[in-house]
Amino acid sequence: MKKLNENTIESFSIDLLKAKKYDYLYGPDIAPDGENPMRLSFEDVVLYEKLEKAVKRLNPSLPWLVQEAAIKTVMHLDSPDMLVNNETFHRMLTEGIPVVITKDGVERGERVWLIDFNDPWNNEFTVVNQFTIIENGHNRRPDVVLFVNGLPLVIFELKNAADENATLQSAYRQIETYKQQIPSLFTYNALVVISDGLEARAGSLSAGFSRFTAWKSEDGENIASNLVSELEVLVNGMLRKDTLLDLIQSFTVFEKQKQEDLKTGLTSIKTVKKIAAYHQYYAVNKAVESTLRATGIN
User: Which candidate, 18, 251, 246, 208, places its Cα nearest to that of 115?
Assistant: First the structure.
């Protein structure tokens, strides 16, 4: 039996994702100095060629100059507030990027799509481990990053359950460090996963540790056995290609909440990003399916 450590947990996660038909790439191989570079510098967090390829494929009727301008917009979200960038990107991702084209002398509005939400399998899903990022002098290497069409949408931080000091909370704290030191990665983040190989929790960019929750069912019909690791259930359920994109498109919201400073009496507006828990996700989808059947809509 293999000794349990972070490397075996990382390999286990990658094998689970490969079984869900994610392509696999080794971070050092695609680094700027790697054997098959897919980044111009270690500051780049988007796999540009994959994004470009997807945009061309998904928007064949639009001129390349328009597609290219949309990509540049996505690549240059530069608010000093990470959550503002993330909300702006989420809107572009789920609603398309508004552009104007001229045809027969008439201007009209169109949308450039980065992801095909109607057909999840018409996208390129890639899992990459040991993805080094250097930003503002900080050299960091998240354990596992999931890319969809070259966009880093999911980040894994893994700890060793056999190490009493390596807990889910320490994984969460590591994510908080990443947010401070390599914030550009989180511009595109849809979901954060923390795990020790047995327990696993998922949460949004703005979620506190208590808001990270387990995904307890792979199919929405049965609660997973306690004999199955939570990490396996989360990957097989939440990170199915169709489920992940459905969560991003229809089950993610940015709420504005008022906060009052008790010392000064001043009120500010705080943005909170929320992602549906497993029971909410499956319950809503079942209700929708039931309604469609009742109305005879296929």
Answer: 246
pLDDT of residue 104: 76
Does residue 166 register a pLDDT over 80? no
Phi, psi (degrees; rounded to nearest 5) at 260:
-110, 130
Over residues 99-147, the pLDDT tens digits come to 998 887 788 899 999 999 999 999 999 999 999 999 999 999 999 999 9
Q: Where are the alpha helices (DSSP H) in the chain?
A: 6-19, 27-30, 48-58, 64-75, 82-95, 168-181, 230-237, 241-250, 278-295
Q: Which pLDDT score is estimated for 150?
A: 98
Q: What is the helix (H) or strand (E) element at residue 108, kind and residue range?
A: strand 106-112
What is the number of other CB atoms lying within 10 angstroms of the CB of residue 209? Answer: 15
- Residue 66: closest CA among 26, 110, 30, 96: 110
Task: Say how far residue 185 (Cα) sits from the centre of its chain.
Answer: 10
Rounded CA gap, 264 and 196, in Å?
A: 42
CA dihedral (29, 34, 39, 41) positive or negative:
positive
Ramachandran sector of residue 156 (left: φ over 0; alpha: ψ -120 to 50; beta: rest): beta
Cα 51 to Cα 44: distance, rounded to the nearest angstrom: 13
Give the SS3 label for residue 256: strand
Strands 191-195 and 200-203, by their bridges, are antiparallel
User: CB pairs under 8 A, 24+ apart, for 88-97?
Assistant: 89/187, 89/188, 90/190, 90/248, 90/252, 90/254, 93/151, 93/190, 93/248, 94/248, 94/249, 94/252, 97/70, 97/73
Convert the pLDDT of each residue in 224-243 to its tens digit.
998 899 999 999 999 999 99
- How far is C-alpha 253 from the geometric centre of its chain's CA atoms? 14
Full-model pTM? 0.92
Q: In this model, does residue 60 exceed pLDDT 70? A: yes
Which amino acid is located at 268 in the chain?
S
CA–CA gap between residue 126 and residue 13 (Å, rounded): 13
